[in-house]
Every structure is written in structure tokens, then in C-alpha cells.
Design brief:
The complex is a heterotrimer of chains A (404), B (129) and C (122). Chain A is built from eleven helices and 15 strands. Chain A has 404 residues and is of the alpha+beta class. In chain A, helix 8 packs parallel to helix 9. By secondary structure, chain B is α+β, with helices and mostly antiparallel strands. Chain B is built from four helices and five strands; from the N terminus they run E-H-H-E-E-H-H-E-E. In chain B, strands 1-2-3-5-4 form a five-stranded antiparallel β-sheet, with helices on one face. Chain C contains four helices and five strands. In chain C, strands 1-2-3-4-5 form a five-stranded mixed β-sheet, sandwiched between helices. The N and C termini of chain C lie far apart (40 Å). Chain C is 46% helix and 17% strand. The longest helix of chain C is centred in the middle third of the chain and has 16 residues. Chain C has a domain of 53 residues. Classes of the chains: A alpha+beta (404), B alpha+beta (129), C alpha/beta (122). Chains A and C meet through helix 8, helix 9 and helix 11 of A and helix 3 and helix 4 of C.
């Protein structure tokens, strides 16, 4: 009876043994037994390939052969121990014999004999080279980003989907009078600008995140709580995660205040010049005693007609001009709108107490007026300025005669 | 950015004079040329008269923005039954309401009118040139 | 409105409007002018509005009505001192006041009025 059980037991053990052996042979993590002097007395195929040697050739080799001085020191410290409970996890750098440099995460379990003496360690090696390389790249890129953010004068900002600041350039922190770049975390434009700028900026960002359409080179007016106004040229683009979901925006704003101020000054100067030109282009001329004349050259839009009325009427009243001759021999096209403006100007002249005469009405214009069926409403029209003047002078004589 | 700078109640005839005088001064302060100051004052006179004559009670609100002045005349009157008709016939008949509306429209740069039987609101705008 | 100033210069009645008038007061003033002019001695009326810087459609039409009324009574009428900006506003309102004569100020107004009266009497 006992024998049968024993046989079963032995079979089971053998089978288990084989299974364990297979497990160790096939696993992808490196597994080894290192003696007291850190020589390999056992290694699995994965371990052999990690150290870059042909299968089975790690046996008897010293760990020291593969490690840098620094790493060997680290390994020795962690593997050799008098403490029974000590299990260590540490990282070492390995120069494998296949030419590759590898980073290994190492886990060591010390082993002791019956007398409690340290006899070696079971060691697991995990190849973490990829992760380490990734970390190194990340650190490098982060340092690039930081040097960019710390030195560039443009305002760069990363925001989340609620338009809160995540990361900003130093220049932007300074712009906001905040010492610490991290002091902007969770704040929004509303914390640093007045509503006038913050609201449309926020709405732009929400729109960008909704539609995916960026804004490029938009000139914005920044209004500050201390009353300052600055101008920037802003570009904002959406930010995505790996699944192409929108997670916020990246923005760059370049200060163009000086340029804007310069442009405004220039515009003011141009406007002043334009005004002068307008004045010069419709001079009111004292052509005779009590007679003013204004030649209209070029087009007559409503703005110009308004200006002409203003200066003509003011001068008529100032100079007590009994007649105003409006000469249109140099006018551009005459349509019903233009005729309308001329008639209205003439009627206003009459209202202030003067008489308006339209001269320069040549054959063409007369034809146009007739064709359009425009009612000149009793406005005296003549073909030349001379005729107009003659008329005015004879009228004056008439009036004087009437008063006797 | 728009801000309200005047709000004048229109309840009696003399308010028409008060409103147009104050708004003319405001137009001057804003920098309008004299010709436009008068246009604005005259438009205000026309519209506030309409309020007194046809709506019993109302008010004028003046808002200022970077481009000029916005003048809103609103009342709680019976409204204008047919705005188009009123403004069309304004010239040829003695319909003072129509004349006032058309006049104001010509004097100002922007003109919008909303009218229901619980009131009328006329929004006009003059650009600062 | 307390009083309407009136001046008689021979056969000419001069009425200066010196303050802003709201509608009712303006109509009353109009009536007063017509009553005053309804007198065989008066041959012409000069209404001076040089003090007014705002004339709207109501006043414009009222002036027209007064002028028509006076003319119907056989009197000559002249409107004095329409300011440039008032002229522009009236024209934009479409009130041309075509059948009323106009003058800058009283001197020329009286001259013109005199001329018109003389013409009538010829």
C-alpha cells in the first residue's frame, strides 16, 4: 500500500519538477542564481540573452564582467547580505556582450544554509531599457520646452478644456506680475484681464475646442484691471490626447502694442490729412461782393455733400452772402441721388436767406436731368459761372430798385 | 463697449425740450460736428414728440460706444398698427407720427423700430465721423 | 411761455422768438402773431428765429401755417435768421418752406420786406 502511494507521490513530484523547470526555461524574465562571489551558477535562457551570451554560457561567469563600476557596487550592496529577510529591488546598467547597453531592474532574494550563512541569491532581471530610454527622452524634451518657455518673449500658454492655465512661459507670468510660473495654475484670463478682453478670449477658446478650427494672427485688445490697454497678435490651436479628443488649447500671443499705437497715430495723421484735403477740395470762394461760389469737382457722395453744406452755409451767414453759386462743371456723373443732394443744398441755402444758383449745367447734364425726370424745384440753373455771376449782379440791382 | 449715459423720462411736453437740449449737449461732448449735433437733437425732438402725442408716457435712453451714440426712444403706448404704412404716407399726409419717424430716420445713421400693442421702441444710431 | 415780444416798425410787425417753445406754447404764439397782424396798419411780418438752434418738423410746419395764414390776410411774411444747422435739418426733414421768404438777419429782412410791400402796392 505504502509503495503505491510513494510511487504516486514520486510521479507527482517528478511532474511538478518538470513543470517548474519548463517555467523557468521559458519565462521572459531573466532568472539566475548568484554565488557569494557573484558568479553565475545558474541562469535561464532569458538571462543569457539579457547578458548577451549564447545559451548556457553564463555559467561560471562573474557578474562583475558585465557591469560598470558604479552598477557593480550597487549590485554587491544589494545582493550580498547577512540579513535573512532582505529582498532588494534595484536598477543596474549592463554592458551585454552582444554589444548592447541595457538597463535592468533587479530583484534579489538571498539564500542561507542551515547554519544561517549567506550562500548566494536568486536574482530576477527585468529589461527596462526601453522605459529608461523613454524617460531620458522625456527629460530632454522637457528641458527643451522649459528653455523655450523661459526665454522666449512671446506669451505662450497651455490651457485645459475649461480655459484654465496649465503651463505658461515666464514672459506671460511676468506680464501678469506673478513671480512663480506655477502660480497661474487653475487661473483663467478672467483672473488677469477685465471682462472686456477675458470674455471674447474665453469664447474664442471654447469655439476652437468645439470646432477644431484654430485662430491665427488675431489682433486682440487686452484690457487690464489697472486700466492699462495692450494689443497682441494671437494664435490659438486645439490640443488633443492620444485618442484625438480635445483637451484644451495652446496659445501664443505676441505683443504688438507699440506697433498698434504707431498705426493709430498714423491713422490719425492720415485722417487729419484727409480732412484737410476735403476742405481744400471744396473751397468756398469769395467771387464777388456778397457772392460766394463753390466748385464741385469729382464725385458727390452724401458725406461730401454734408461737408459742402456745412462750410457753404456757415460762410454764407458769416459773410452775409446774398448769393451762392454752386458750380458743377467739374462734377463726375450726375444721377438722381447726386441731383437730390444738390437740390437739398440749394434749398438749405435759400432757407438761411441767400439765393442758390447752379452753374456748369452743360448740355449733357441737362439731358440727364431731363431723362431722369428730376424736378429741380425752382433752382436756377445756368451753363457757366459767368452767366451765374451776371445773373446775380443784375438781381442785386433789381432788388435795390425795388426798395426805392 | 456700450455704456448708458442718459435716461430721460418723457411725460409732458416740456420734456421734449429738455431731452433734446440735454442730448445735444451730450452730442457736443462726444465730439460730434455742429451739423450732426443738430441732426441728433432734431431727431430726438421728433421721436419724443411722438411719445407725448401718441403714447402718453415713455423715456429716452442714450448709450455711448466707440463708434458714436445710440439713442433709444421707448414708450408704453398702444403701438403703431402699420409701421410701413405710417412711414410711407408720412410725407403726403398730415400724419405727424409718420413725418416724425421718417424725419428721424433721415437725420440718423441707423433706425430700427419695434412696435406691439404694449409699446414701441425705436433704436437710432449716429456715427461719429 | 410768459410773453411774446412784438415790435412795430412802421407797418412791419417784428416777432423775435427768443426761447424754445414746446408744442402748445408754439401754437399759442402762432395765434398771437396772427391776431396781432390782423390790423390794417400792418403790411408785413418778420418772424425772427435766429435764437433757435433746433427747429423740428412741428415748428417747421407751424411756421409754414402761420405764413400761409398771414398771406391769406394779405400780409407779406419773412422768416429771419434760420441758422445753418437748422436749415440743414429742415431740408433733411423735407421742410423746404418754399413759399416763405427768408433773410439772415433783421436788417436785410426789413429791406426785403420793404421791397415786397412796395411791389404789392404798385
Amino acid at each position: 500500500m505504502a509503495k503505491k502511494n510513494d510511487k504516486k507521490e514520486i510521479k507527482k513530484l517528478r511532474r511538478e519538477n518538470v513543470e517548474y523547470k519548463n517555467l523557468i526555461e521559458e519565462m521572459s524574465e531573466g532568472f539566475a542564481f548568484l554565488e557569494e562571489d557573484l558568479t553565475f551558477s545558474f541562469s535561464n535562457p532569458a538571462c543569457d540573452s539579457i547578458f548577451g551570451v549564447p545559451e548556457g554560457k553564463l555559467m561560471g561567469r562573474k557578474l562583475q564582467d558585465f557591469l560598470t563600476a558604479k552598477s557593480f557596487k550597487e549590485a554587491k550592496k544589494n545582493i550580498i547580505t547577512k540579513k535573512k529577510k532582505k529582498k532588494s529591488v534595484f536598477e543596474i546598467e549592463v554592458n551585454a556582450e552582444d554589444g548592447e547597453g541595457r538597463y535592468l531592474l533587479t530583484r534579489s532574494n538571498p539564500r542561507f544554509d542551515e547554519k544561517g550563512k549567506f550562500v548566494g541569491s536568486f536574482v530576477f532581471f527585468y529589461n527596462i531599457t526601453k522605459r529608461i530610454k523613454l524617460e531620458e527622452d522625456l527629460i530632454f524634451e522637457r528641458s527643451l520646452l522649459n528653455s523655450l518657455l523661459n526665454t522666449i518673449p512671446d506669451h505662450i500658454y497651455f490651457k485645459d478644456e475649461k480655459s484654465r492655465f496649465i503651463k505658461v512661459s515666464k514672459s506671460l507670468a511676468q506680464w501678469f506680475n506673478v513671480d512663480d510660473v506655477d502660480g497661474l495654475m487653475d487661473k483663467t484670463d478672467f483672473d488677469f484681464f477685465t471682462e472686456e478682453h477675458a470674455r471674447p478670449a474665453f469664447e474664442d477658446e471654447q469655439e476652437i475646442m468645439k470646432t477644431g478650427n484654430p485662430i491665427e494672427g488675431k489682433i486682440e485688445k487686452e484690457t487690464h484691471p489697472d486700466g492699462r490697454t495692450t494689443w497682441v497678435s494671437t494664435t490659438k490651436v486645439p490640443r488633443y490626447d492620444k485618442e484625438k479628443n480635445v483637451i484644451g488649447i495652446l496659445g501664443i500671443s505676441r505683443d504688438v502694442t507699440e506697433k498698434k499705437l504707431w498705426e493709430e497715430e498714423r491713422e490719425e495723421k492720415l485722417e487729419a490729412q484727409r480732412e484737410e484735403l476735403m476742405e481744400l477740395s471744396t473751397p468756398v470762394i469769395d467771387v464777388w461782393e456778397g457772392v460766394l461760389t463753390v466748385p464741385i469737382l469729382g464725385s458727390l457722395d452724401s458725406e461730401r455733400a454734408s461737408r459742402i453744406s456745412e462750410s457753404l452755409l456757415t460762410q454764407i451767414v458769416e459773410k452775409r452772402a446774398g448769393a451762392a453759386i454752386i458750380d458743377i462743371s467739374g462734377i463726375g456723373a450726375v444721377d438722381s441721388a447726386v441731383a437730390d443732394r444738390l437740390i437739398r443744398t440749394a434749398k438749405a441755402v435759400r432757407l438761411v436767406g441767400s439765393e442758390a444758383i447752379l452753374t456748369g449745367v452743360g448740355v449733357e447734364i441737362a439731358q440727364t436731368i431731363a431723362d431722369l425726370g428730376i424736378d429741380m424745384g425752382g433752382l436756377k440753373t445756368m451753363s457757366t459761372l459767368k452767366d451765374g455771376l451776371r445773373y446775380v449782379i443784375s438781381r442785386k440791382k433789381e432788388q435795390r430798385g425795388e426798395m426805392k | 463697449m456700450k455704456e448708458e449715459i442718459l435716461r430721460i423720462p418723457i411725460n409732458k411736453e416740456i420734456d421734449v425740450l429738455i431731452a433734446r437740449r440735454e442730448i445735444k449737449s451730450e452730442a457736443e461732448r462726444t465730439g460730434f460736428r455742429w451739423i450732426d449735433q443738430t441732426r441728433i437733437a432734431t431727431a430726438v425732438s421728433e421721436l419724443t414728440r411722438n411719445i407725448i402725442k401718441h403714447a402718453y408716457r415713455g423715456e429716452v435712453i442714450v448709450n455711448k460706444d466707440d463708434g458714436g451714440l445710440e439713442i433709444i426712444c421707448q414708450d408704453e403706448g398702444p403701438g403703431i398698427p402699420d409701421i410701413e404704412q405710417a412711414m410711407e404716407r408720412g410725407y403726403s399726409t398730415t400724419n405727424s407720427l409718420g413725418i416724425g419717424l421718417i424725419g428721424a430716420k433721415h437725420l440718423m445713421d441707423g433706425f430700427e423700430i419695434e412696435s406691439t400693442d404694449s409699446g414701441t421702441k425705436i433704436t437710432t444710431y449716429k456715427k461719429l465721423k | 411761455m410768459a410773453r411774446l415780444t412784438r415790435m412795430h416798425l412802421g407797418d412791419i410787425l417784428v416777432v423775435p422768438i427768443q426761447e424754445e417753445l414746446h408744442d402748445t406754447a408754439a401754437e399759442e404764439a402762432g395765434e398771437k402773431i396772427i391776431r396781432e397782424a390782423d390790423n390794417s396798419n400792418i403790411k408785413g411780418v418778420a418772424i425772427d428765429i435766429s435764437a433757435l438752434d433746433i427747429v423740428d418738423s412741428f415748428l417747421g410746419r407751424l411756421l409754414q401755417k402761420i405764413a400761409w395764414g398771414l398771406r391769406a390776410m394779405g400780409k407779406e411774411v419773412i422768416l429771419v435768421g434760420i441758422q445753418p444747422e437748422v436749415a440743414v435739418a429742415l431740408v433733411e426733414l423735407g421742410l423746404y418752406l418754399e413759399d416763405i421768404n427768408t433773410a439772415f438777419e433783421l436788417d436785410s429782412a426789413l429791406e426785403k420786406l420793404r421791397g415786397m410791400i412796395n411791389k404789392d402796392s404798385k
